[in-house]
Amino acid sequence: MNHAAEFMDGLAKTAFTLTLSLGSLAFGRKVAAMLIPVIPPLKLPSKVLRYGLSVLSVLTYAAVFPAYFRLPAAYRHQATAAILFAYPGALTRYILSICLNKRLKAFPLGTFIANSLGTALLGAFHVLQSTPSPPSPNACSILQGLIDGYCGCLTTISTFAMEVWELRTWKSGRYALFSWMMGQGLLLVILGPSFWAGLFE
């Protein structure tokens, strides 16, 4: 196994993902700047419409629970397990960003904690899925739902790229590098012992 090649592969994927995200952001800003003079601004929806959409969203999310338990175990984790945990994941990230992002002017602490927490949980859930005694089908469905739903909505590359873009100066590089190092460090601590013990091939 060529560990140096794997390390370089990881660096390349990291650089490619961040570059693509920043490039997409720059492209979107250019398109928006061209369309703003053409498209009239939208009016704020009425209070009745906003409350109605909120109630509809809650009812739609509530309908996921009976749908999950009534679907066959063979594929329900692919259909609805992620949706069960998507809302709590998005809500967690929203609360973290609202409460913590303004604490440090040059370092979006809320997004940093959300991404770090999501990375740590992803590592922990993968370890649980790879235990010598495999979890039950229900436990596997829940773990996959937590990985795809909760962690998928808790972590963010789009907001991270926007924050790196807005910081601009050396502060953006510090934020990006520290976030990357924290994620790698957490996975090393969580996944490392499992790799060394032979749980992962």
Main features:
201 residues, mainly alpha
Helix share of residues? over 70%
Strand content: under 5%
Low-confidence stretches: none
Calculate the mean pLDDT score and round it: 88
Gap between N and C termini, in Å? 11 Å
**Number of DSSP helical runs:** 7
How many runs of DSSP E, i.e. beta strands? 0
Radius of gyration: 20 Å
- Specify the biggest β-sheet: none
SSE topology string: HHHHHHH
Principal-axes geometry comes out as flat
- Judged by helices, strands and strand pairing, the structural class is mainly alpha
Task: Tell me what you see in this structure.
The longest helix has 33 residues. Helix 6 packs antiparallel against helix 7. Helix content is 79%, strand content 0%.
Concise overview:
This protein has about 200 residues and is mostly helical. It has helices at about 5-35, 45-70, 75-100, 110-130, 135-155, 160-165, 170-195.
